[in-house]
Amino acid sequence: MCAKAILKEPTIPVKNYDRDLLIELYRKMVSIRLFEQKVEHHFLAGDIPGFVHLYIGEEGIGTGVMANLTKEDYIESTHRGHGHTIAKGADLNRMMAEIFGKKTGYCKGKGGSMHIADFSVGMLGANGIVGGGYTLAVGAALASKLREDGRISVVFFGDGASNRGTFHEALNMAAAWKLPVLFVCENNEWASTTPYLTTTSVADIADRAQGYGIPGYMVDGNDVLSVYETSKEVVDYIRSGNGPVLLECKTYRIKGHFVGDPEKYRTKEEVQEVFDNNNPINRFEEKVIEAGVLSREDLDAVYGEVEAAIEEAVRYALESPEPDPSELFDDLYV
Amino acid sequence: MAETKKITFSQATLEAMQEEMERDDTVFVMGEDIARQGGIFGQFKGLPDSFGSDRVRDTPITETAIVGAAVGAALAGMRPIADMHFADFMLVCGDEIYNQMAKVHYMFGGQKTVPMVLRAPDGLINQAAAQHSQSLEAIFQHIPGLKVVAPSNPADAKGLLKSAIRDDNPVIYFEHKALFNTKGEVPVEEYFTPIGKADIVTEGSDLTIVSYSNCLQTVAKPVAEMAEKEGISVELIDLRTISPIDKDAILESVAKTSRLAIIHEAVKQGGVGGEIAAIVAEEGLDYLDAPIMRFGSPFTPVPFARPLEQAYRLKPEAILEGIKRMF
Ligand SMILES: Cc1ncc(C[n+]2csc(CCOP(=O)(O)OP(=O)(O)O)c2C)c(N)n1
């Protein structure tokens, strides 16, 4: 495999996809979208404290990649991690409860939105430090290599994070040791208020793979099937013991950097344009309906189920107790 | 008395790793120049012969990735030992230590432990100058979630390293470079030195001296001996663990002696001595018959030229003079 970035177009016609897989992809994307819409609503209503960064508009990436992983594979996530966590199979109730700062949350209310983890599904944690996840994923992959357990590790990161030194240290170590790691760049064109081209030395982050002698790929991150197909190829490559791959998924950050961001750095029209014309959920709906594999009714049925599950997650979070002050010292040491 | 043998500090840490790696195949070691070269202080010599270069792993020069990968491997069920070459280089990977290694267990609600050891050769050796001689323990004492140990002799070196490897918490293991070649009696039978427990090296009734690591041997002990000659009975405490600190041992001793001096090689300002003094001021002020005295290095980077380095080093005689003023 060459070390030059390649733009992968989808090759499998939609009608050849397994129906259950398509339903599953749709369910995941809609779960992320509806989950986050609720989070946004409750944050603005003052029910959720701290910082919340939304993944809305980027659902195709986490969904498409995760569909190629098993529960045993590891992922490392970012400050924008709800989507990855849901796609990896975490429980919506416990996630919502954690974001609300409740005792029933994944971290007993000690983590919040930026620090959710679910080790039972191989989700090794979100990270409040940009670029904090790379080396941890490399370590998890090293563990898999030492144990020969066949697992791979995937680390998600933004275009902004690709400028951290940890990116380079992790890519080098993973490449030198041929570790089973997939580096997934979610290039949403923004790092907080900064457009990525103003701070990044290459137009395509996938090109950086060349510096480490590993394959670099680029896909349309708003096309879940492209992401699915390409990540399938690279996951197979990594599982076969070939070492790491860098996969850049082009997308766009629909929401502000965090909920409450005044977004003075871009126009509403720019955002609306992407949301209307290049939204992974709408694009998927159009594709599958046009190909005749799923009907509007099929999609609506899934949507309805997800809506109910999210309602339930919010109810669970709202009704859950807050942690007791006496729990402050719990889990400081083992 | 249990049977003992005389070995070096370095040999003692090697035995600890040998024993733990034989027992548990999730234990592995990584760091710069550890496999091929055996570590720059020879502290890994022979280990790859027993366990191969997968489990005794030479890394790129990439401290951030070494510590981060150790955290990740620990999260994935291993018990890594990461070597920092020189403790000074830990400052390259502040995030990995402060924000990741130390926090993961707590911040994820206790879902996962981080059973890893960071080996950090620290302290003054001859003319290694400002970036290869630091004693950084105070920085790490300030981070909740970490354990920090600093043995002063071969027996504790082995016992503490074995405890650190088996501990489910992340442990920073400071090993003073000047101690590597020192010899001492080490039990032949398997044993563990408990983390969090100070050691009463000598009992006494007039003055408590708290020290640790190489400074205990080269400064605190001579000071205590000279004080004894002057008729001051010294209780010498080897702290052994910097965090969590053994408050009880210190307070009990001060309750008995009514005087406290703390001696460490790290610069005095912002050092561990300040923490110990504060503990006693807060919880044991009534025991005291004299102000607490702290002795640490001057507040400068470690200088290179010999006369400057000599000026920098702690002087037992000067410390004794200070101590005499407590009476
Ligand atoms: C080390 C570090 N520096 C800065 C920040 C503050 N910060 C949080 S998110 C962010 C932008 C990240 O951009 P990118 O990696 O592109 O991810 P995106 O938010 O676009 O998903 C910044 C600067 C941080 N959390 N950590």
Summarize the structure.
The complex is a heterodimer of chains A (334) and B (327). In chain A, 42% of the residues lie in helices and 10% in strands.
Secondary structure topology:
The complex is a heterodimer of chains A (334) and B (327).
Chain A lengths: L5 E2 L11 H26 L14 H8 L7 E3 L5 H6 L4 H8 L33 H15 L5 E6 L6 H12 L4 E7 L2 E2 L2 E2 L20 E5 L3 H19 L2 E6 L17 H10 L2 H11 L5 H24 L15
Parallel strand pairs in A: 1-7, 2-3, 3-4, 4-8, 7-8
Antiparallel strand pairs in A: 5-6
Helix pairs in contact in A: 1-2, 1-9, 1-10, 2-7, 4-10, 5-6
Chain B lengths: L3 E5 H15 L3 E5 L15 H9 E3 L4 H13 L3 E5 L10 H8 L2 H4 L9 E6 L14 H5 L5 E3 L4 H13 L4 E6 L6 E5 L11 E4 L4 E5 L1 H17 L4 E5 L2 E3 L3 H11 L2 E8 L4 H12 L9 E5 L8 H7 L3 H9 L3
Parallel strand pairs in B: 2-3, 2-4, 4-5, 5-7, 6-7, 10-11, 10-13, 13-14
Antiparallel strand pairs in B: 1-8, 6-12, 9-11
Helix pairs in contact in B: 1-7, 3-4, 8-12, 9-10
The structure holds thiamine diphosphate.
Thiamine diphosphate (TPP) binds next to β5 of chain A.
Number of separate strands of chain A: 8
How many strands, what sense, and barrel or not for the largest sheet of chain A? 6 strands, parallel
- The rounded distance between the terminal residues' Cα atoms of chain B is 38 Å
Please estimate the helix content of chain A.
40-55%
Class inferred from helices and paired strands of chain A: alpha/beta
Strand order of the largest sheet of chain A: 1-7-8-4-3-2
Largest interface pair:
A-B, 46 and 42 residues
Total helix count of chain B? Answer: 12
Label the overall shape of chain A: globular
The residue ranges of chain A in which pLDDT falls below 50 over 5 or more consecutive positions are none
- Using the CA coordinates, give the radius of gyration of chain A: 19 Å
Number of strands of chain B: 14
Largest sheet of chain B: 7 strands, mixed
In sequence order, what are the helices and strands of chain A, one letter per element? EHHEHHHEHEEEEHEHHH
Mean pLDDT of chain B: 97
Subunit arrangement of the protein? heterodimer
Measured distance between first and last alpha carbons of chain A: 45 Å
